[in-house]
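Practice problem 4.
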Protein backbone atom coordinates (compact mmCIF):
# COMPACT_ATOMS: atom_id res chain seq x y z
CA UNK A 1 0.00 0.00 0.00
CA UNK A 2 1.24 3.45 -0.93
CA UNK A 3 2.39 5.56 2.04
CA UNK A 4 0.65 8.87 1.52
CA UNK A 5 1.14 11.92 3.75
CA UNK A 6 -0.75 15.20 3.76
CA UNK A 7 1.05 18.47 4.55
CA UNK A 8 -1.82 20.81 5.40
CA UNK A 9 -1.45 24.56 5.75
CA UNK A 10 -2.44 27.97 4.54
CA UNK A 11 0.72 28.58 2.48
CA UNK A 12 -0.12 32.29 2.24
CA UNK A 13 2.46 32.25 0.68
CA UNK A 14 4.66 29.12 0.71
CA UNK A 15 8.00 29.91 2.41
CA UNK A 16 11.45 28.32 2.61
CA UNK A 17 10.29 26.87 5.93
CA UNK A 18 7.46 24.91 4.28
CA UNK A 19 9.62 24.03 1.27
CA UNK A 20 12.35 22.57 3.46
CA UNK A 21 9.89 20.50 5.54
CA UNK A 22 8.32 19.03 2.38
CA UNK A 23 11.70 18.12 0.86
CA UNK A 24 12.94 16.58 4.09
CA UNK A 25 9.74 14.55 4.56
CA UNK A 26 9.82 13.23 1.02
CA UNK A 27 12.15 10.24 1.64
CA UNK A 28 9.77 9.02 4.37
CA UNK A 29 6.70 8.63 2.14
CA UNK A 30 5.71 7.46 -1.34
CA UNK A 31 3.63 10.55 -1.93
CA UNK A 32 3.08 13.90 -0.24
CA UNK A 33 -0.04 15.94 -0.86
CA UNK A 34 0.46 19.61 -0.05
CA UNK A 35 -3.10 20.47 0.92
CA UNK A 36 -4.16 24.09 1.06
CA UNK A 37 -6.82 24.46 3.71
CA UNK A 38 -9.67 26.84 3.20
CA UNK A 39 -10.56 28.05 6.66
CA UNK A 40 -13.75 30.12 6.58
CA UNK A 41 -12.69 32.20 9.61
CA UNK A 42 -9.34 33.22 8.11
CA UNK A 43 -8.71 35.99 5.61
CA UNK A 44 -5.88 35.44 3.19
CA UNK A 45 -3.59 37.81 1.32
CA UNK A 46 -3.46 35.55 -1.75
CA UNK A 47 -6.38 33.59 -3.19
CA UNK A 48 -6.40 29.80 -3.37
CA UNK A 49 -5.44 29.63 -7.04
CA UNK A 50 -2.43 31.88 -6.57
CA UNK A 51 -1.23 29.92 -3.52
CA UNK A 52 -1.74 26.66 -5.39
CA UNK A 53 0.09 27.84 -8.49
CA UNK A 54 3.17 28.91 -6.48
CA UNK A 55 3.37 25.51 -4.76
CA UNK A 56 2.98 23.74 -8.11
CA UNK A 57 5.82 25.81 -9.56
CA UNK A 58 8.08 24.78 -6.66
CA UNK A 59 7.54 21.06 -7.24
CA UNK A 60 6.91 20.88 -10.98
CA UNK A 61 9.67 18.25 -11.40
CA UNK A 62 8.54 15.99 -8.56
CA UNK A 63 5.83 13.51 -9.51
CA UNK A 64 5.42 12.28 -5.93
CA UNK A 65 4.39 15.71 -4.64
CA UNK A 66 0.79 16.69 -5.41
CA UNK A 67 -0.99 19.92 -4.61
CA UNK A 68 -4.64 20.06 -3.64
CA UNK A 69 -7.10 22.22 -1.74
CA UNK A 70 -9.65 21.20 0.85
CA UNK A 71 -12.28 22.54 3.19
CA UNK A 72 -13.46 20.87 6.37
CA UNK A 73 -11.54 18.65 8.77
CA UNK A 74 -7.99 17.65 7.85
CA UNK A 75 -8.60 14.06 9.05
CA UNK A 76 -11.64 13.77 6.79
CA UNK A 77 -9.59 14.99 3.87
CA UNK A 78 -6.84 12.45 4.75
CA UNK A 79 -9.38 9.65 4.77
CA UNK A 80 -10.76 10.76 1.42
CA UNK A 81 -7.32 10.65 -0.25
CA UNK A 82 -6.08 7.53 1.58
CA UNK A 83 -3.41 9.33 3.62
CA UNK A 84 -2.40 7.84 6.98
CA UNK A 85 0.03 10.61 7.94
CA UNK A 86 -0.16 14.34 8.57
CA UNK A 87 3.12 16.26 8.35
CA UNK A 88 3.63 19.44 10.39
CA UNK A 89 6.66 21.59 11.12
CA UNK A 90 7.95 22.86 14.47
CA UNK A 91 9.88 26.08 14.98
CA UNK A 92 9.57 26.86 18.68
CA UNK A 93 7.66 26.16 21.87
CA UNK A 94 4.61 28.06 20.63
CA UNK A 95 4.44 25.79 17.58
CA UNK A 96 4.95 22.81 19.89
CA UNK A 97 1.95 23.64 22.07
CA UNK A 98 -0.20 24.55 19.08
CA UNK A 99 0.74 21.46 17.10
CA UNK A 100 0.33 19.22 20.12
CA UNK A 101 -3.27 20.35 20.60
CA UNK A 102 -4.10 19.86 16.92
CA UNK A 103 -2.38 16.46 16.77
CA UNK A 104 -4.13 15.18 19.92
CA UNK A 105 -7.51 16.39 18.69
CA UNK A 106 -6.94 14.82 15.29
CA UNK A 107 -6.03 11.55 17.03
CA UNK A 108 -9.33 11.64 18.89
CA UNK A 109 -11.17 12.25 15.65
CA UNK A 110 -9.35 9.48 13.79
CA UNK A 111 -6.76 7.31 15.54
CA UNK A 112 -5.61 5.67 12.32
CA UNK A 113 -3.90 8.86 11.20
CA UNK A 114 -0.49 9.72 12.69
CA UNK A 115 0.90 13.23 12.89
CA UNK A 116 4.59 13.35 11.99
CA UNK A 117 6.40 16.43 13.27
CA UNK A 118 9.69 17.65 11.85
CA UNK A 119 11.86 20.30 13.47
CA UNK A 120 12.68 23.21 11.25
CA UNK A 121 16.19 23.76 9.97
CA UNK A 122 17.56 26.40 12.38
CA UNK A 123 18.20 28.83 9.53
CA UNK A 124 14.45 28.85 8.75
CA UNK A 125 13.22 29.00 12.34
CA UNK A 126 12.26 32.67 12.15
CA UNK A 127 10.42 32.47 8.83
CA UNK A 128 6.65 32.63 8.92
CA UNK A 129 4.12 33.39 6.21
CA UNK A 130 2.77 36.24 8.32
CA UNK A 131 6.15 38.02 8.49
CA UNK A 132 6.67 37.40 4.76
CA UNK A 133 3.24 38.96 4.10
CA UNK A 134 4.19 41.95 6.22
CA UNK A 135 7.39 42.48 4.22
CA UNK A 136 5.43 42.19 0.95
CA UNK A 137 2.85 44.73 2.12
CA UNK A 138 5.69 47.10 2.91
CA UNK A 139 7.34 46.54 -0.49
CA UNK A 140 10.37 44.69 0.90
CA UNK A 141 12.37 41.95 -0.80
CA UNK A 142 11.26 38.46 0.28
CA UNK A 143 13.35 36.43 -2.17
CA UNK A 144 15.50 34.93 0.62
CA UNK A 145 12.41 33.63 2.42
CA UNK A 146 10.50 31.98 -0.43
CA UNK A 147 11.52 29.03 -2.64
CA UNK A 148 13.84 29.94 -5.52
CA UNK A 149 11.33 28.76 -8.18
CA UNK A 150 8.87 31.52 -7.40
CA UNK A 151 9.01 35.27 -7.40
CA UNK A 152 6.56 37.55 -5.63
P1 LIG B 1 -1.40 26.92 9.31
O1 LIG B 1 -2.22 28.14 9.04
O2 LIG B 1 -2.16 25.63 9.21
O3 LIG B 1 -0.50 26.97 10.53
P2 LIG B 1 0.96 27.45 7.75
O4 LIG B 1 1.00 27.53 6.26
O5 LIG B 1 1.25 28.70 8.50
O6 LIG B 1 -0.46 26.86 8.05
O7 LIG B 1 1.93 26.30 8.27
C1 LIG B 1 1.81 24.97 7.89
C2 LIG B 1 2.81 24.13 8.68
O8 LIG B 1 4.13 24.55 8.36
C3 LIG B 1 2.69 24.26 10.20
O9 LIG B 1 2.95 23.01 10.79
C4 LIG B 1 3.78 25.22 10.55
O10 LIG B 1 4.24 25.03 11.88
C5 LIG B 1 4.84 24.82 9.55
N1 LIG B 1 5.80 25.89 9.31
C6 LIG B 1 5.55 27.17 8.98
N2 LIG B 1 6.69 27.87 8.85
C7 LIG B 1 7.69 26.99 9.11
C8 LIG B 1 9.14 27.11 9.17
N3 LIG B 1 9.75 28.28 8.96
N4 LIG B 1 9.83 25.99 9.48
C9 LIG B 1 9.19 24.82 9.72
N5 LIG B 1 7.87 24.65 9.69
C10 LIG B 1 7.12 25.72 9.39
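Answer key:
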Amino acid sequence: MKKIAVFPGSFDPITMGHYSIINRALPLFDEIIVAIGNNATKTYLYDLNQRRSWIEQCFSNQANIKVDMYAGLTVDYCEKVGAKYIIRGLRNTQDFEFEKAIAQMNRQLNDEIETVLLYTEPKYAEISSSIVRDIIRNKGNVSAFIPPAISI
